[in-house]
Structures are given as structure tokens and as C-alpha cells.
């Protein structure tokens, strides 16, 4: 039986995606040979400051959103956030980080790094952790390369992939998939050829149940709908 392909859409600045990473790790551990997680990005925070200032204007603005993020994060023991999150540093856009992450992924595609190193996953997590715990402005290219250096990623190769336009093309494919599947929430999981989706803060057991249902159904089994 072919592995189940899961499209995983997230925004690197989204606290719910930051929280959900542990669920992905658990899924990969439990269904190691039965699933493939295909990572994509949705620009929920493509224009971060304007989005938050407008969306939280009547709820104390950036401070109100900061309080919301801290309250949300306090409910989960496996993560932490800086007390000045979203007030002291407000990244301009998650799109810059997503472009960089697409370039990192292309290192694997081009054979410049082994896929087993999981560079995209590791770098995305490093970006999230740097922002949420240390207030690193991960929309800044210099900050991105500083994180990449700590992960021992090849700067020249990444810069070349960005300069060539290839990273932009890869990110453009993400945007096409976002439109095709009408993704508006981070994180979003889509599987069963688009017939099933889970949006936002979905518990691990719910995700697990959906995967087990697909694994236990025959490939040509008809829907009861």
C-alpha cells in the first residue's frame, strides 16, 4: 500500500503551527512508513503588522494580540514564548521566511543535502523557536542566514537558489496549492486527495483517527456519502 500523502500548510509566524509541531513529530514516529508529510506555506502573516493592527484595533492592538498569544501558549507545556512577543519585535512578513525555507528545501531536491537530514523541518522549527522565544526578526534575511549558520547550512548555495528565482518559483507553487485547496487557516492538513481536511488547533487523536481510517480502508472503497 502506498503511503498516505498529507499536505501540511502553515505560516512560520503562527502560534498554532508552533504548538502543532509536536503532533507532527508524533505522527511521523507512529506512522513512519505509512505517511508522507508534504510541507507548504500559507501567508497568513504575509503583511503581519497591518493584519494585526487592523484585526486587533478594538482589542488593544498589538498588545492585545501579544496577550492572546501568551495566554494560548501557557496552555501547552512543550512550548514557551517571550513575554514581549509581538510587541517589541514585529516581523514585516512571513513570506520572506517562507521563501528562504523553500530555498532550503531545494537543497534536498537538488541533491545538495540528503533528504534524511530533514533540513526544511529543522530550519522551519529553528525559525519558529527563534521568533517565539528570542524575538528574532525572522523576516530579515540577515537573521535567516544567522540561523542557517547555526544549523551549518550552505549560505552560498541557498543564496544562489534565491537569486536564480527557483525559490520564488517553488513558493509560487505553494500559492497555487493554497488557492486550489482554499487554504485560509494555519495549520491546515489535507489528505485523501483533498476530500478530508483538518484546520487549526486539531488534537493529535483526531489527526490519528483520520489517518487510521484511511489506512484501514481499501484503496477502491466507495464513500458512503
Query: Which bin fits the share of residues in helices?
Result: 40-55%
Structural class: alpha+beta
**Shape verdict:** globular
Low-confidence regions: none
User: Which second-level CATH architecture applies?
Assistant: 3-Layer(aba) Sandwich
Q: How is the CATH topology named?
A: Glutaredoxin
Q: In what order do the strands lie side by side in the largest sheet?
A: 2-1-3-4
**What is the alpha-carbon Rg in Å?**
18 Å
Q: How many E-type strands?
A: 4
For CATH, the homologous superfamily is named as: Glutaredoxin
Integer average pLDDT: 92
The major pleated sheet works out as: 4 strands, mixed
* Strand residue content: 5-15%
H/E element sequence: EHEHHHHHHHEEH
With helices defined by DSSP (H or I, 4 residues minimum), what is the helix count? 9
CATH top level is Alpha Beta
Domain count, please report it. Answer: 1
Q: How far is the N terminus from the C terminus? A: 24 Å
Structural description of this entry:
The protein has a single domain (4-216), classed as Glutaredoxin. The chain has nine helices and four strands, in the order βαβαααααααββα. It has helices at residues 15-30, 48-55, 61-73, 94-109, 119-134, 141-150, 155-163, 166-180, 204-216, and strands spanning 4-10, 35-41, 188-191, 196-199. The relative contact order is 0.18.
Descriptive key words:
single chain; Glutaredoxin
Could you write a compact summary of the structure shown?
This protein is α+β, with helices and mostly antiparallel strands.
